[in-house]
Structure formats: structure tokens, C-alpha cells
Amino acid sequence: MAKLWGGRFDDDTDALVDELNASIMFDKRLYREDIEGSVAHAEMLAAQGIISDDDVDLITAGLRGIRADIDAGRFDFKLADEDIHMAIESELTRRIGDAGKRLHTARSRNDQVALDFRLHVKREIATVIGMELNLVTVLADLADAHLGTVMPAYTHLQRAQPTTFAHYMMAYANMLRRDVTRLEDCRERLDFSPLGSGALTGTTYPIDRAATAQKLGFSGATENSLDGVSDRDYAIELLSALAILMMHLSRFAEEIILWCSWEFRFVELADAYSTGSSIMPQKKNPDVAELVRGKTGRVYGDLVGLLTVMKALPLAYNKDMQEDKEGVFDAIDTVKKCLPVFSDMVRTMTVRRDNLRRAAAEGFINATDCADYLVKRGLPFRDAYTVVGKLVNYCVKSGKTLETLDISEYKSLSELFGDDVYDAINLENCVALRNVTGGPAPDEVRRQIAGVRAFAGERT
To answer: Taking the model in full, what pTM does it have?
Structure first.
């Protein structure tokens, strides 16, 4: 089969070279963007008097017919066509004749592929953001239902201070909120059309780049033609944002995996989001959470892969850049698979309030509040810290907790202790008194919930 670019060559390329060179089997997913860009380009060419109105009518009708056939699964993608751009142009020419050959006037595959990729990334960002906002809403609903569910918070995976399950969920909701803004920032920076950049230095035809940019929904055209065709920073930025998003999901998944274990028993996943063992009948495994944790590494690999491809490429386009798409497609597909199932897993899990409260009652997580009690009575914090450390040491050796100590035992270490110390170390009071911005007090968490709900509402 003759290549569209074959005029310079006497001999055919080797079959193995054709196989190595072809990207049609993965970039065919760009067909909608390719056709949309070609329609906008053809209409601009006609408006500028570069091609005739009759030609543009044939071109646009032919392109829409091709799209209908691809949508319906009636289009035969051939390896010999190399990529989606040449596949569509070849078929268009076959269908409408010479008018199809005029479509590529004032355009290169370099700016064509850059355009298609930007359009695709821009649209996929909107889809991922929608999925993220759904998870944010799930977490807000879960937090709303557990404003008073006391649990231990951890440092070094050791029980540290009392908080609530609601406060914990809002921590992840705020991480996801930032993930959304990172994707929005990426979308804003990529929102410029490279169409009209040509192979690398534009064109001598009197094209209207602003018109095609506007028609395609971009905020403007790229400022420099070399940059327009040769950079993929928007794809790298997207992969970076997706990698950070997956890191947040992975951290949350790790907590859920721990919380499902018999050692914690803080939550139980619904059967629909768990699996069993082929040999151990008692098992209920958190495979969804583990898969999300595992697939995070895959998205990291996609990011590092594209960074490595781009790290030493001179301007402008190089064939290495054909390797930009598979990693981006893979990362987007992975995130789009993970987010919905993760949201449903969290939405349907059972929170074991009693076990959370029981864990909070152990481990002396109210020790800081006990020290603060002494500070409020005039003892310097470091001295108060020492007193309470001795109290905890005494409790450990005698098998007691701060709640079960007699007031005489308190006073043996400091006369500043009074009967009201028991109110100060009550776990619910410890939480309620942390009513600072960002804290776990119920009223403050309600404010946080309202904030993320308003954030999600503005974007839906």
C-alpha cells in the first residue's frame, strides 16, 4: 500500500519497520478529536479562501460519515495506515476523491497529533474530575454520619490523640479537593490550540489560528510554533496530577486494608467489594483496596516513562514522541477504573463505631489533654509533660488507664490535679474542645463538610 508520504522514496519500508512505526492500534481512540480538528481546519481553509466551499462541504460530510462508521464499529483499521490521522485521511480521499487531498493544506501531522492529544487530554480531565468529586461527596456524606464517632488518630502507626471518623474522612476529602484543583490547573495551561503550527514553523498560507482555536473550544492558540508541536509538558503535568491522586487513594486504601483486619476491625467492606480465598474458607480479603494500592505504581511508571522519553529531545518533533500516548492512555484508564469502584467501596463499608471507641479508650491518647489541664493551671508545658509521662508509666505498670486512676494517685504527682481532671480527659470532651480551624470538633467538621460540598457543587 502506497504511503501518503511516499513520494520521496523508491522502495517500500521493511515490514518490521512498518510494525514498529505504526501507532494505529492505540491512537485510534483519538478518532473523534481527529475528525473534529479536521472539520474545524477545513472550515477555516474555506473561510480564508484557501479551498472552495464545494470542497469543504465534501470534506465535512465525508468526515462525519467516517465518524459514524467508526462509532458503529464498521471501520477497518489497517496497520499500513500507520496512525489514526493517516487512516482517516486515506479513507476520506477514497470516499470523496481529490477534495480529500486538499484537507491537509496548511497542516502537518505534527500539529495535527498535538491538537488531537490536547483535545483528548482536556476532555479526559473533565471526566476524572467528575469521578473525583463523586468520591469527595461520598466522604462528606460519611463524615456527616460520624461526627461523634470517636477514634484514635495515629503517628508512627501508634495511637496518638483522639479524633473522629468524620475528621479522618475529611482529611482525605481535602486531599482529593487539591487533586481536583491540580487537574484544573493542568487543563487551564493546556487550553491552547497548536493547530496552524505546521511541522514546526507554521505555514505560508493565510490561515486563521484564532478561528480554529475558538471553534475547537480552546482559550487561544499556542504562542510559538516550535513549542506547539514539540512539547508534551501538559501530558507530563497530567500524569503527575494523576500520580498524586493515586498516591492519595493508595494511602487511603492502606488504611482500609489495616482497618479491615481482625487486629483493628474498624470497618467491614461489603461482600461486593471483597473476595475470598481458594483454600482458607474464613477469609474476606480487601482486594479492591489492594488493587488500587498496586495500580498506583503503574501510574507512577507512566509518569516516569514519559519524563524519560522527553528528557533529551531536541526541538522540534522527534519520533520518540509517539511514545507519549500509551502511557497517558494507560494512566487515564487506570484512574477511571479505580475511582468509581473505590467510591462505591467506601460508600458501602460498615463503620464499627464500638470498636473505634474501644480503641480510642486504650493507648492513653488523652495524655496530651491531661498535660494541657496542668498547663491551664499554671504549670509550664514541659513540666506538665513530665508529670503526665510519669502517670502513664505508672498506669502501664499497674494495669490502669488515666480514666481509672484515683484522684489521690493523680495528686501524688501534682497537687494541681482536681476532680475536674476526669472531664478534661473524657474522649468526647477532648474532641469537642479542639474547635480550632481544621480540628475534629463536630461543629468545625460540619464547616469542613460544607466547604467541600460547596466546592463540589460549584463544579457540577
So the answer is: 0.91
